[in-house]
Structure formats: C-alpha cells, structure tokens
Write a structure and sequence with these properties.
- It is built from seven helices and no strands.
- The longest helix has 31 residues.
- It is globular and about 55 Å long.
- Helix 3 crosses helix 5 and helix 3 packs antiparallel against helix 6.
- By secondary structure, it is mainly alpha-helical.
C-alpha cells in the first residue's frame, strides 16, 4: 500500500517532484551521476519525513511549499548557468531533499501511518517515491539524453529550453504558493 502511495505521489500526482527530477537529469548525461543525485534526495527526504511524522520537526506547508518551488527554480537556473555538474550539487540536492521530505509528510499526515508499523510504512513510502523517481530518470534518459547527448547543440536545444520551461513553472508556483 505505501509503496504504491509513494509511487503515486510522484507519478501522476507530483508534478513539482517530476519537474525537480527532470531538472536533476539535464546537467549530466551520465546515468550513474543522475541516480546518485536521486539517491541523495531520497535519503534526505526519508530523514525529514520520518522526523516530521513523529512530530520532532514541524514546519507549516505555507513555508515548505514555496521553498519546494524555489528548489525547482534553483535547479533549473543552475542548469542554464553552469556548463557542468559541480561536486557540491549533491549537497544542494540533499538539502533540497530535506525540504521535500517535509512536503511528503503533509501528504502522509492526511492518510496517517499505523503506529505499530511506522518505520516500515515510511520506508515503503520512500521506496515508492524512489521507484517513481527512477521511472522518470529512465524516461528522460531514454527519450531525451540518449538520443540528443552527442549532438553538439545539446545544451542549446535541450538543456536551455527545458530548464527555462521548468524555471517558469517553478517561478509561478513560488508566487502562487506565497501570495495566492
């Protein structure tokens, strides 16, 4: 149940998380590098999800949701400004994962977790999230990166337009989640 719930929180319900993961894929053409970023993200959101579900950390969604949108915006802008993936990006992705975990907690709080199977439920939810992320990564890799990565205009024709579109959506979400 919780694996399915985690997967569905990404596909089809998590457009913000889908755009975040797509953004993570665009600056590197190496699957291993992309998967490391996704794993760092998952480890981080597992930590804050568990802490939030145990009420050790509580942050209102009015704060978390705009920061999630800003994290998507940051990754998209970084894709446009940088020509290669820097080693510190994994740290940034981990920190963003901490924030996204608080957003996942909002979704799980609506359903609740069985107290006698708390950690198992959290782990299975995150397994579902990870599977959803891997599905997105594989789709991006097969449909975008593999066909276009050897093209000398890959950045100009793929990275820039997709990152710009993600940035525009994320900027709108930031405004929407802050003001509206």
């Amino acid at each position: 149940f919780y694996v399915k719930l985690g997967f569905e929180h990404i596909i089809p319900l998590g457009l913000d998380h889908i755009l975040f993961v797509i953004g993570l894929c665009l600056l590197s053409i190496k699957i291993k590098t992309i998967l490391w970023q996704a794993t760092a993200f998952t480890v981080a959101h597992t930590i804050t999800l568990a802490l939030s579900m145990k009420n050790i950390i509580t942050v209102p969604s009015e704060i978390v949701e705009p920061i999630i949108a800003l994290s998507i915006l940051f990754v998209a802008i970084e894709n446009i400004l940088l020509t290669k993936l820097n080693p510190w990006r994994i740290v940034i992705v981990f920190l963003f994962g901490l924030i996204h975990g608080l957003g996942f907690a909002t979704a799980l709080n609506e359903i609740g977790l069985p107290p006698d199977k708390f950690f198992t439920s959290v782990l299975f939810f995150n397994l579902g999230v990870e599977l959803g992320q891997i599905a997105i990564i594989l789709l991006v890799f097969v449909l975008i990166i593999i066909p276009f990565r050897k093209n000398q205009h890959y950045r100009k024709r793929v990275v820039y337009p997709l990152s710009a579109a993600i940035a525009l959506v994320a900027a709108w979400w930031t405004i929407e989640r802050t003001i509206l």
